[in-house]
Design a protein that fits this description.
The protein is mostly helical. It has a single domain, classed as Mitochondrial carrier domain (Mitochondrial carrier fold). 75% of the residues lie in helices and 0% in strands. Helix 7 crosses helix 9. It starts with a helix and ends in a 5-residue tail after the last helix. It is a multi-pass membrane protein. It comes from Morus notabilis. It holds the Pfam family Mito_carr.
Length: 377
């Protein structure tokens, strides 16, 4: 298989694996984003900016403490299956675009091999450098997509917070004036009947533009740029582990073709790689998600952010250091499983491609020989 065909095969396999992994694990990603963006002030904090509406948001607080499975079931019950897959279309597009940039780095490694500067895989330092450059460009071009995905995933969460604020304001108004109880109950019932539903990509884009203009599509860009080290760490661990596994098998002299890892081994290597990358960069992911989500999720001004530094300071001040790891267990399960599926599917697609190419080559060779044989002798 030629280098150009190899690059195409890697691109198709990588995009295919990424898309399948995204579809399978997307419900976990949606719930995780909601966990990351749920904001609750520490009970010890007594600040005039912390409103009673925020401390009384029992439904949001209880959902924040609920297990991932319970939250998934809650979303299905209140929003249907569409709530778990809100933002899937732009997310798939973003995943495919990201895989294209990753495969560009692999193409550079192949070019190095042709020039005799490597074995076709990037060394540790070279991989970190190339992945950082490709990742930075990737972030700048695809950040608007992920802003829309975050908005779509957390839209109903923000709408519920807005409803809670309206209820709080209504109850406060009723306590300060001679509100008729039947009128109050009617208005509260009206608010309860307004159940938030997921919205589409176009509406999310219109909302972002209305709030912050074009700059709104690059919210969270600073922590996201820093996070370009995540895929570098992930693929560095994976490629190093894979090369070590193949070398160890070759040393055992198990026979021709036996150096290729099995699907389960690739799955486990992918899980290990993603686990290491996720743990090291998770706090940045939380900050990014909070900046990209609608700020009404914060409830009051103390839990709304104007930028990266403001978000970090307020998270430490009002919620504590544990806020940087909200939903981490869900993220580990989702990202590790997604990475494992990605690598496994990619390897299987590549094997199928190579086998098909080999059979086609054999068929063409047999056909050519058959055409020449009548003239032989």
């Amino acid at each position: 298989m030629s280098n150009s065909n190899n690059a195409v095969a890697n691109g198709v396999a990588g995009a295919g694996g990424g898309i399948i992994a995204q579809i399978i694990t997307y419900p976990l990603q949606t719930v995780n984003t909601r966990q990351q963006t749920e904001r609750r002030a520490k009970s010890k904090v007594s600040n005039s900016k912390i409103t009673t509406a925020d401390s009384s948001s029992s439904s949001s607080s209880s959902s924040g403490r609920a297990s991932t499975l319970v939250q998934i079931l809650q979303v299905i019950r209140s929003e249907g299956w569409g709530g778990l897959y809100s933002g899937l279309k732009p997310s798939l597009f973003g995943t495919a675009a990201s895989m294209v940039f990753k495969n560009k780095a692999e193409a550079i490694a192949l070019a190095r091999q042709i020039k005799g500067r490597g074995d076709g895989s990037l060394g540790m330092f070279s991989w970190l450098l190339v992945a950082a450059l490709a990742g930075s460009l990737n972030v700048l071009l695809t950040n608007p997509i992920w802003v829309l995905v975050t908005r779509m995933q957390t839209h109903t969460q923000a709408e519920r917070k807005i409803m809670e604020e309206r209820k709080g304001a209504l109850l406060k108004e009723a306590s300060e004036s001679s509100f008729n109880s039947s009128v109050l109950q009617h208005k509260l019932a009206e608010l309860d009947s307004l159940k938030p539903r997921p919205y589409g990509t176009l509406r999310a884009a219109q909302e972002v533009y209305a709030e912050a203009g074009i700059a709104g599509f690059w919210k969270g860009i600073i922590p996201t740029l820093i996070m370009v080290c995540n895929p570098s760490i992930q693929f560095m661990i994976y490629e190093s582990s894979l090369k070590h596994l193949k070398a160890r098998r070759a040393a055992r002299k198990q026979g021709q073709g036996s150096n290729n890892p099995a699907a389960l081994e690739v799955f486990l290597l992918g899980a290990l790689a993603k686990l290491g990358a996720t743990i090291s960069t998770y706090p940045l992911l939380v900050v990014k998600s909070r900046l990209q989500a609608k700020q009404e999720i914060g409830g009051n001004i103390s839990l709304r952010y104007s930028g990266t530094i403001d978000a970090i300071i307020k998270m430490i001040q009002y919620e504590g250091l544990t806020s940087f790891y909200k939903g981490m267990s869900t993220k580990i399960v989702q990202s590790v499983f997604a990475a494992s599926v990605l690598f496994m599917v990619k390897e299987e697609i590549l094997k199928a491609y190579i086998l098909t190419a080999y059979k086609c080559k054999q068929l063409l060779s047999t056909s050519s020989f058959g055409k020449r044989s009548p003239h032989a002798g």
